[in-house]
Amino acid sequence: MKRPYLNFVVLFLLFYSGFYMATAQDKYLNNIQETQELSKNIATLFKENQVSTAFGRLTPYWPMPQNELNAIEEKTIKYLNLLENRFGTAIGADKIKNETISNIALRETYLVRYSKSAIRLKFTYYKNDYGWIVNAFKWDDAFDEEFE
Question: Which domain of life is it from (predicted)?
Fold first, then answer.
């Protein structure tokens, strides 16, 4: 008799923790201007190597589990510190591209410039029935692909 009860408790805890950890997103951006302001703000924070603050600002709009966001943030901090040694000091953050799919998706691309190279930040937003959310965010050093 203890076994079914234990199974129920375990299943309940798994469901509850999965529901609780399902997403960090709890806010919506109201319009494209707000998405653009968020992207610009995050790019500036990356330039200033304030990654934790940047992820803190993205999190309320990004429907991804908090533990995954924490892991991405941790890796980003690690790599940006290494990158600064290789690319030099950050000297600017510039928006280079704005792409849209009708009125339901938006992608903004920024370059964070360093004295010896640059990294590319891509923000993808999706509009649902409640407003705009962060659908994807990524950064890399493959900005040469922007010439294609």
Answer: Bacteria
Q: How far is CA 132 from CA 36, 81, 136, in A?
A: 11, 31, 12
Dihedral of the alpha carbons of 123, 49, 22, 98, in degrees to the nearest 10: -10
Amino acid in position 38: L
Residue 15 domain-assigned? no
Residues with Cβ within 8 Å of residue 146, at least 6 apart in sequence: 96, 97, 109, 111, 120
Residues 58-68 have pLDDT tens digits of: 999 999 999 99
Backbone angles phi, psi at 96, to 5 degrees: -115, -15
Does any domain span residue 2?
no
**pTM of structure:** 0.81
Residue 23 lies in a domain: no
Domain residues for 48?
A: 29-147
Cα–Cα distance measured from residue 52 to residue 98, given in angstroms and rounded to the nearest whole number:
25
